[in-house]
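tool_call: predict_structure(chain=1)
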Amino acid sequence: MGVRTWIESWPVYRQFSGDDPLGRGAAAKSAGTERIRPRVSTADKVVKSVCPYCAVGCGQDVYVKDGEVTQIEGDPDSPVSRGRLCPKGSASLQLTTGSAREQRVLYRRPHGTEWEPLDLDTAMEMIADRVVEARRQGWQWEQDDVRVRRTLGFASLGGATLDNEENYLIKKLFTAMGAVQIENQARV
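tool_result:
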């Protein structure tokens, strides 16, 4: 490569000698940056979602290729976040692909020190049995001569990423079971 060719390939020379004096377009691109492609350009589809971390509900674009999540970015169409994500929301790809994510149910027995894997059906049965027992033990028909028909044996704290319909169903379920302590992270 001669000196003249080298100088002509220099971005500052291209900026002042070409049609891009501000260096915002072709003058700023090198051969290396010409080869770079966005991580999301190979995605098969984009799924709209909501960040699961807090009650703000920032919009996310989830990029999927071959059934696997490849990238998560802020949704510029979201009226809540307008394409921006906080550091936790920006790192939410780790929720789906991170090596620390558990893909199975783990259980630690009372007074135990080790976690043991359980199958999902066993875990669900254990939860149902405990809900029924907590309801039975904590049931109150009356308090101070006032009929209350409730239980203080369990409560519900919903997540911020649940939509209105899901929150409605959870409220109905827990109310039907007699719970009075029903809250949602979006209001906390």
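agent: DSSP finds seven helices and nine strands in the chain. Proceeding to next step.
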